[in-house]
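Hmm, what's this shape?
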Amino acid sequence: MKATFAFAIPLLSLISATLLVFSSALQVDQGKIAPNERAIEEVKQGKRKVAYASWWGFDPEDATEALQAAIDSGATKVIVDNTGRPWVVSRTIHLSSNQEIVFEKGVIVEAKQGAFLGKGDCLFLAALQSNITLIGYGATLRMRKLDYTKPPYEKAEWRHVLSIRSCENVRVYGLTLASSGGDGIYLGVAKRGIPCRNIHIKDVVCIDNYRQGISVISAENLLMENVVMRDTGGTPPMAGIDFEPNEPTERLSNIVMRNCVSQNNAGDGFAFYLHNLNATSHPVSIRLEGCKAIGNRRSVSISAGNSKDAAVEGFIEFVDCVFEGSEGAGIYIAQKFAQSLKVRFVKCKVNKAATKQPTQAPIVFANARGNFEPIGGVEFVDCVVSDEIERLPIAYLDFAGGLELNEVVGTITLMRGGRKSEYKLTRDLLNQWFPSQKFKVFPPFVSGDLTKFEPLFPKAQFPHGISSNARLRSRAEFLVWAQKGEQVSFTLSVQPVGSAVVQPANVKVIAPSGKTVEAKEFHGEVRNEFVANETGAYRIVCEVGRATVTMKSCTHRFCMFASDSVFHFLGTIGKFYFFVPSGVREFGIKVSGDSDAERVRVIVCDERGQVLDEKDNILHAHQFVITREKFEQDEIFVLRFERPSVGVLEDFYVQLQGIPPLLAPVKEALLKLSGQ
C-alpha cells in the first residue's frame, strides 16, 4: 500500500501541473478567468500551435481583448472554449490568415449592448486574408438586430455577423450566425478586382438577419452545402441569399449551392440582381442543386440588364429544386435580355405559389417601362407546377409594351385538381397566351462609324448658335458636327430631380475617330470649348446619375443621339425634328410614361405640320407606326411633346425604330449618314 501511495503522489502532482498549463486558466470572482501567462508565453515561443482563447483571460462583461489577442497570437489553431457564459465583444474581431478557429459546442460570441455604433461595424471581419477556417457545430455568433433600428444607432445595413472581403481559401462550418444589423455572411471586396476565392460554407444557419441571410458580391469557386437562411427581415432586399455585384469588375464565377434551404424570409429566397454587371464582365456561372425555397416573398428572382451592352453573359442553372409556398411568384424573371445570360430549370417543382394573389402566376416574366429589348432566354426541362387556381402557369407583365418574350422554351407540366396538363413552350403558344406581343418589330438601326455622319443641310449657318430645352435624364448623348480647325463652344446645364442630391456630372467629348478629346466633371451650368482636330460628328457623352442635362446652347449644329436607342426625357415640351432616309417605307416610334401619374401627349407631324398621328395621356407603351407613300425620297418629320390632359408631365421614354436615333431642336441641325 505504501508503494502504491508513494507512486500516486508524484502522479497527482504531474496531473496538476499539466492542468495548470492546459486548462483555461484560474477562475476568479463573477465568472472571470485570469490569463494563463505560462501558456501565452509558450504560444509566443512557438511551443504550442493550438491555443485556448481563455488563456488570454475571460471577462463576461467584455471579452474583446482576450479573443482578439488569441487570434493575433500566431497559433495555427485557436479553440474558443465554452466558459459557461457568452463571449461578449464590443468591437469588430479581425481574423488572420493561416488559422483555424474552433468554437466549442454551446459557445456564444455576442455583440455587446450599446457597441457597434459605426454603420459598417461587423462582428467578425476578414479582409485580404487567406487560409482561414471557422468551425462551430453547436456554436452561435450573434448580434443585436433590434437595437440597431433605434437611437443612438444611425440607420445602416452593413453591420454583418461575418464579413469576408477579397479573401482566399476560407471555410465556414457548422456555425449559426444570427440577428445582424446587415447580413449573416457577406462575401465582398476589400480591393477592387479581387473577389473572394475558394470559399466553402457548410452546415451553416443564418437566422434573423436584418438585410440578407447571405450576400454574394464577388466570388469565384464558392461552394455552399446544407446552408439554411431563414427569417430575414428589416431592410430590403431581405433575401435568404442575394447575388448582387456592385461593379462590372466583380464576378460570380463557378458558384454551387447544394441542398440549401431559404425559408420564411421577408424578401426573396434566392435573389439574383445583376444590373451592375455588363457585357464586359466575367461571365456568370451559378448552379443550384437540390435546394429549397419555402415561404418567402418569391422563391427565385432574377433581374439583369436589358440590352446587349448592359447585360452579362453566362448561365444560372437550377437542378432538382423545390420552390414552395411563396407569397408571390415562385419564379420571377425581370428585365433579362433574351440573348445574354441563360437560365435553366431542370426537374424543378413550383408548389402553391401566390395562392392569395390570383392575378399573379407561379412563374412570372416582366420588363419595365423604358426597356426596349425582348426578354427571356430561359429553358424549363421537365418542370412541374402545382397550382389549384384557374390561371396560366406563366404570366408576362409587359410594362414596356410590345416587347417579345423570346427564347422561352422547354416543357412544363401543370398539376391541378388531380389533372395533369403538359405544355411545350413554343413561339405560337406564347403568342396565344400573351397576345399583347403584337407591336411591330423593326430591325435596330446601326449607326456605324461616326465619321460617316454629315449635315443634312450643309449650307445652313448658325450665327447665334442653337439652343434646346430638352431635359435628358441619367445619360445624354449629343452629336456636334464641326470642320477641322473650328472652335466649338457649348453650354451644358445639370439640374436636380426633386430633392435628389446632384453628384458631379461626367462629360466626355469623343472625336469622330473615337479618340477622347476632353473628359471632365462639373456641377450646375458650365460652358465648354474645344478645337476640332478632324472633320465630322463629335460625340458628347454626359453621365448625370439621378439628375438631368440640357444642351443650353451650342455654336455648331447638334442632335440628341441615343446610342442605346432610348431617349429618357423629363418634363420636356416642344418640337423636335428627325430624319427618315430614302428607302424606308415604314418606321415606328415607341413612347411610354413612367409611374401611374407620369404621362405625356405626343403628336407626330410631317415637315409641313400636318398631323399624322397623335396620342394623349401615354402611360403604358404606345407604338406609332408611320407608313410612307413616297419612301423613295428623304423626308423630315416632327415629334411634338405636350402636357397630358390627365396626370403630370415628368419622366417619359421615346424610341425611334428603324430610323437613325437622332432628334434635333431645329431641322437645319439634322445629320444623316453619308450615302443616305
